[in-house]
Design goal:
Helix content is about 30%, strand content about 20%. By secondary structure, it is of the alpha/beta class. The strands form two sheets. The chain has a four-stranded mixed beta sheet. A three-stranded mixed beta sheet has the order 1-2-3, covered by helices on one side. Strand 2, helix 3 (about 65-75) and strand 3 form a beta-alpha-beta unit. Helix 1 crosses helix 3 (about 65-75). The radius of gyration is 18 Å and the shape is elongated. The N and C termini lie far apart (about 40 Å).
Length: about 170
């Protein structure tokens, strides 16, 4: 029994490593692991893997692309397994699940990372964004609606640049 658990542990490590290589198609330096959309994986001893994926938005246009990328990357590392990527709408994703590494990747992409929050999310939390270019908090939200549902448009009053924020959700 211990040998099977050890083997499953090794397989899980390989899967998590593969998932680190699957990038969000809209933010290509942010992995699905750092985005926090993989809440669980299951490895069954009959060579079957089930990966749960919680999308950032239920209507995210990248859901199917990410699903396919996850499946292909895991099969590349573990070709003898069957892989199912289940889109999980039962669990709710929120921006607090983005890892510190993921927040840094967003900033390097010049996309303001969402602030971590507790309790209820309000407009003040969404409106408060540090400029990813110069770091200033002297910013103004221009629109809560950006090019995708998960982004807002802001303007930095110090460096005079507009930027996008990954909205806290």
């Amino acid at each position: 029994m211990g040998e099977i658990k050890e083997e499953i542990s090794i397989i899980e490590s390989i899967i998590w490593g593969a998932l680190e290589e699957v990038m969000d198609p809209e933010i290509p330096m942010l992995s699905v692991v750092d985005l926090g959309i993989i809440p669980e994986i299951e490895v069954f001893d009959d060579a079957f893997i089930k990966i749960y994926m919680t999308p950032t938005f239920s209507g995210c246009p990248a859901i199917h692309v990410i699903q396919t990328d996850i499946r292909n990357k895991v099969l590349e590392k573990l070709p003898d397994f069957a892989v199912e990527v289940k889109v999980d709408f039962e669990r709710t994703w929120n921006s607090n699940l983005i890892s510190d590494k993921g927040r840094e990747a967003l900033k390097n992409f010049e996309l303001a990372p969402p602030k971590k929050y507790t309790g209820e999310l309000d407009m003040d939390t969404i409106a408060d964004a540090a400029c990813p270019i110069c770091g200033s908090h002297n910013t103004t939200m221009q629109s809560p609606f950006g090019p995708t549902l998960c982004r807002a448009i802001h303007y930095c009053n110090d460096c005079k640049q507009s930027f996008q924020q990954f909205k806290p959700l």
